[in-house]
Amino acid sequence: MKIFQINTVYKKGSTGKIAFQIQKECQKNGIENIVAYRYSEGENDKDSYCISTWFDCHAHNRIARYTHRAGFYSKIRTKRFVRYIKEYDPDIIHIHNIHGSYINIELLFDYIKKSGKKTIWTLHDCWAFTGNCPYFDIANCYKWQTGCRECDKYQFLHNRDISAKNWTAKKTLYSTLPNLTLVTPSEWLANLAKQSFLKDIPIRVINNGIDLNVFQPTESDFREKNHLIGKKIVLGVAFDWGIRKGLDVFVELSTMLPNDYQIVLVGTNDEIDKTLPPKILSIHKTNNQKELADIYSAADVFFIPTREENYPTVNMEAIACGTPVITFDTGGSGEIVDKNTGIVLTEKTAKAAYEAIVDICENHRFTTDDCVKRAKSFDMNKKFAEYIDLYKEIAKMQ
Q1: How far is CA 238 from CA 169, 274, 304, in A?
Q2: H or E stretch covering 234
Q3: What kind of fold does domain 222-378 have according to CATH?
Q4: SS3 state of residue 58
């Protein structure tokens, strides 16, 4: 069997790591697997294919930022890419993210339709069934259910229906595919897809997974190095801090917590540091996943005040390291937490978070053992093996 994956990135970022781990699982099972991705940043190898170049992607992105038609350019590169797929002749095409300004979706799906190739599409956000938006929670916009007309966010030359044009094009492209199966990492996203024009396409839920050999309770000198002995550590981890990830909630929370509490944020940068009060410890990045696991293990509680999310890996990583999680009830974030490993807040405020944090830290409501027990269900080897089963099932379909 030959599988051909398509994603924006390879071996890095959440989706790039997922594609790479699926590839490794395929190879363990004697299945050929190539991952095609946007452009090389040094991660390419014999089992991968670069679709475009940095210059072409940059040009696609600049034009799309003006016209709001990401995914409808890069025709020359996509034609060459389609020729490569034809030569490789996979049994199954497995799509991930294709909205990274590197591919023409009309040409790609036209080829898939004409070839009749069996196709899996793992949705990592909502872009597939909206005019432009990967998420719409903050905007509280549900026009994607009826056509994305009169868009308040995306306009081109005073045309408020540019998103509607994209929405209609997408609906036409996907609805004519005879052998398409959708996968989502969360029940939340699966339910949204069932409310969209994708509702008639078969859909499966396969959760993301993590490496439990790395993410497990560990001893470290993190507290000593950062002078946090005797402090209760409230940890946040993200790599695109801002309103979407709830940075403002952490800032407000820092004014509410007692002096024996310390907020630690990982994944910040110099610009973010300028907005942070002195009471927040900022760590720009970790050297490796082991170091990140050390920080998770040192924390008393992990807090994720995200406002838009699918199925955040950080929740799994924290729980696997024995640290309970507090999350806003956003997207599929709450699906990861159970009654023994954390709290899901329906009231998305700093006040609600403060009360939950103090409750956990003062009353020791959750144990490391319960967290580790829950984490067994996050094993990436088991999760990605579900894709192997799906490949085999689809390959048998007539």
Answers
A1: 33, 17, 9
A2: strand 232-237
A3: Rossmann fold (3.40.50)
A4: helix
